[in-house]
Amino acid sequence: MDQVTKFVSEHWAAILAAVLAIIGGGFALRFRSHRQSGRSNYVDQTKAKAGGDIVGRDKVTRIND
């Protein structure tokens, strides 16, 4: 246990920088990911189970028509 305490006391700045980098990276990924704005009318309905006009215009049933 004494070795761990010595290691942490000698490398506290690097440990703190690594923890802050991990937290900052998490925030960057969270806010960089796509978020639908309130004015957008796009809806992902790829897993919707309905047929005909029930689903609407955004349902994609085939890739590369």
General description of the model:
- This protein is mainly alpha-helical.
- The chain has two helices and no strands.
- It has helices at 2-10, 12-32.
- It is rod-shaped.
- The protein starts with a helix and ends in a 33-residue tail after the last helix.
- The mean pLDDT is 76.
Sum this structure up briefly.
With 65 residues, the protein is mostly helical. 46% of the residues lie in helices and 0% in strands. The model has no long low-confidence stretch (mean pLDDT 76).
The number of helical segments is: 2
Q: What is the string of SSEs from the N terminus onward?
A: HH
User: What is the subunit arrangement here?
Assistant: single chain
Mean pLDDT: 76
As a percent range, the share of strand residues is under 5%
Spans where pLDDT lies below 50 across 5 or more residues: none
* Count of extended strands: 0
- Principal-axes geometry comes out as rod-shaped
Which sheet architecture does the biggest sheet show? none
Q: Distance N terminus to C terminus?
A: 64 Å
Q: What is the gyration radius calculated from CA atoms?
A: 24 Å
Helix content: 40-55%
Classify the secondary structure makeup into a structural class: mainly alpha
Protein name: LPXTG cell wall anchor domain-containing protein
Organism: Sphingomonas daechungensis
Keywords: Membrane, Plasmid, Transmembrane, Transmembrane helix
Transmembrane segments: 12-31
